[in-house]
Amino acid sequence: MKHVKTLFILLLFFGIASSHAQSKREELEKRRVELQNEIRRINELRIGQQKKRQSVLGQVEDLNQQIKSTENLIKVTNQQANLLTREINTNTKKISQLRKELEELKDDYARMIRKSYKSKSQQSRIMFLLSSKSFLQAYKRLQYMKQYTNYRKKQGEEIKERTRELQKLNANLAEQKEAKEKLIAENRKTRARLEENRKSQQELMSTIKKREGEFAAQIRKKQQEIDKIDRAIEEMVRASIAKANEESGSSSRDTYELTPEAKALAADFANNKGKLPWPVKSGVVTMQFGKHPHPVVQSAMINNNGVRIDTDKGGKARAVFNGTVSEVQAVKGANMAVMVRHGDYITIYNNLQSVYVKRGDKVVTGQEVGEVATSKTTGKTTLHFFIFKNTQKMDPADWIYQM
């Protein structure tokens, strides 16, 4: 029984470890697929834009994004390979321990068989019972004989079970080794593509350095367009707060007057900071929140009140939390905007070519609010996404999970 208990404890420990590893493996595989789709999307855009003779600056921006995504893909694939290595080592130790326990079980079983063989005759059993000094002792001896027979049967079944477990582990080990080899081969190909992209990036960057002043002027012009859109969004937020307060009998213009229900919703929204879902099914952030140097022309500064997310053509904008549609407006230079209120928090989904909701509609997390517009010039499908608390601008990356 000692060996059976030890083996049970070992299998329980390995089972918990295996469950944790499985969860981590699934998480990494999901991220790897997301990155592959991200790289595919960027590559398709690059090919399409090259046909349209996209500017050198645009090509470098896309290349930078593709290089970043490829580096992340290599990192995630390495993590998967390392996790598989640890699992292979764990399985190897598990197999070694199982073999040892199996041998001990077999030895115990063999000793029981030999002992049973020596006393297997019916006459020996009867004599064992008849030699009892009392009826109680005879009864106990009979019970012992039954227990011994059951234990021998149970130990035989235990050996069969351990043998099946060992065979299963050996099969898993072979699969893990094959999976690891595939990941390593994939990483080699990914690294080769990365080097090609870096070479293209260097060639384009040399062109940009020669014409840095020209490109800086292009960036400043683009920033002016972004500023106009951001100002229009800010005006929409202030007007919407003022309108909501006026309807509730308050004169405040910059801060929502909250009902108990709205306070509860705002608290729920705040409690989900860092855990909110993405506002698109799949996408990549191409412009971050705040003021920072341009990723290509470092001498030029860019500023953004939200984030810009490139997604698939025909991609849908989705509510990141339960709320009420407070505004649906056209924004000059950025198509349609949908504003959703969550207490005194606001999320805005801008650059929509079609809208599926109207003012006053209740929306739930994940509900589609509109289709993201695709630029005829660049071929990019880009959502402008904002988060406010009243009129205070907030970084969506602090709120959206893994943004």
TrEMBL record:
The keyword Ribosomal protein does not apply. Residues 1-21 form the signal peptide. InterPro entries: Cell_wall_metabolism_enzyme, Dup_hybrid_motif, M23ase_b-sheet_dom. Residues 304-396 form the M23ase beta-sheet core domain. Gene3D superfamilies: 6.10.250.3150, Glucose Permease (Domain IIA). Residues 18-115, 152-239 form a coiled coil. It comes from the Bacteria. Keywords: Coiled coil, Signal. Pfam families: Peptidase_M23 (PF01551). The keyword Metal-binding does not apply. GO terms for molecular function: metalloendopeptidase activity. This is Peptidase M23.
